[in-house]
Amino acid sequence: MTTFAPNGSLNVEALRQEFPVLSRDIRGKRLTYLDSAATTLKPLRVIRAVEHYYRRGTANIHRAVHLLSEEATGLYEGTRTTTQQFLNAKDEREIVFTTGTTGSINLVARSFVKPRLKAGDEILLTCLEHHANIVPWQMVCEETGAKIVVCPVNDDGAVNFEAFKKLITPRTKFISCLWISNALGVVAPIREMIAAARSAGVPMLVDAAQAIAHVPIDVQALGADFLAFSGHKLFGPTGVGVLWGKIEHLDAMPPFLGGGDMIKTVSFEKTVYADAPAKFEAGTPDIAGVIGLGEAIRFVSEDIGFKAIKAHEDHLLSKAEKALGEVVNLRVIGTATPKIPIFSIVMGNIHPHDVGSILDSYGVAIRTGHHCTQPLMARFGVPATSRASFSIYNNEEDVDCLVKALWKTQELFA
Amino acid sequence: MSPHASDLYQSVVLDHNRSPRCYGAVTGATHRAEGFNPICGDRIVIEVLVTDDSLGVVGFTAQSCALCRASASVMMELISKKSISDAKETAISFEALLKGAHGNPLQLKDSSALAFCSIKDFPARAKCVLLPWRTMLSCLSDQTSVSTES
To answer: How far is CA B116 from the centre of its chain?
Structure first.
């Protein structure tokens, strides 16, 4: 029994009331928000939690003994417990709060992977990766002489798993792969990939930035070593994210940033670091963001549930696939299954930025460009695409508005 | 009335996009510059053959959106055969026009450039329209490349 899916199926019209942005007029039109792969909208439950912290509960955490500080610390650490349960992590010390997926990946790259690298070693990625899961690895490779190996994708956007297995060699020191492609919506065979990494004894990170709002995650069942996600792609605030790591890894890793809150004792001669996860949370964190993230997780798990999310998104996927298939001169890149309702669209010679501007004037918000996946765009021979990405609050009318605006675009450039 | 994309994609813009003027490389070009927008990947190359301080032959090639391409095409019409200093002044006037400066600067009077006035309602696209002009200025100042992000 959940608030918005009492019978297991999502009551999307009731759910839409929870997202105040949806009631905004965009250039005199209803908002058709199809940019959730970039960032999801925020529900009232999250907005209120963040507002409450600033309005009634402002204090720093882990410091003072006064009531406000105790409350703030309780809410902040409460999110750690909520996140642990959400991911089914073994121990809440395995949950590190970061600035987002990018921050999480950089932490692992610097603190876990770099000390293990020497010239000639390899880090295995896939062609689907977001720049956030490419550049940090390039940086540590430049410093160590290691190199990046890229697993190819097939013409339908699927990870070439046979190639993936072959690319794991004795030189492979780390594997870092996304679970769901932000650009194409294609789901990688992550369980099989993790199993292949494990049987070769290579540690692996899962970039769950896009997956986090679409599939249930059980890190113990998955068996990877690290998993990273951002709050803002899970209906939570921007600027906050999570790194889950096996506690034995986190315990063994040196800190990444030095500062307050990550120490046991400090003298000018020597500092003793705190244990994980505090060791990785130097300085005053985004307290309101973490509190909002906790609320976002409870919103997803208590008010909706992944079963209802999947059923709803599958429905939107098939409806949108069919409707887009009828638009002339339109091609969707990334048709492999399984996939979530993200559509990377190419419309003949019409540049994505022109598509984006015209759609915008019909109130349809999409992302145009390379989606921080330039190597993937190059793989498909396009500089950019127009990406429509759906989420829980989208309805059939959103599909209709998208398709209508795409037809208008065709007419204008015909 | 809310601004609409049809204000931006006027028939003159669509026409220049469909049939760009002076499209192609310039044989024996004396000046050449490449403009790049790293945010969207748009790329434009402008070539000019300067003779006796005037832009004798101008040309461009582009992998870009319609606005950038149309803006380049309109620019070609405006600067062709002009002196270097007139061409530069035209670019400055054009930028002022996009920012909503009062009155129509003389160089742009009654020209197709006025079709881009509504860009002020679509600030996210201003860089697309300006890229050819900034590239042309670089080209005439003997710089070989320009980016919207520098």
So the answer is: 10
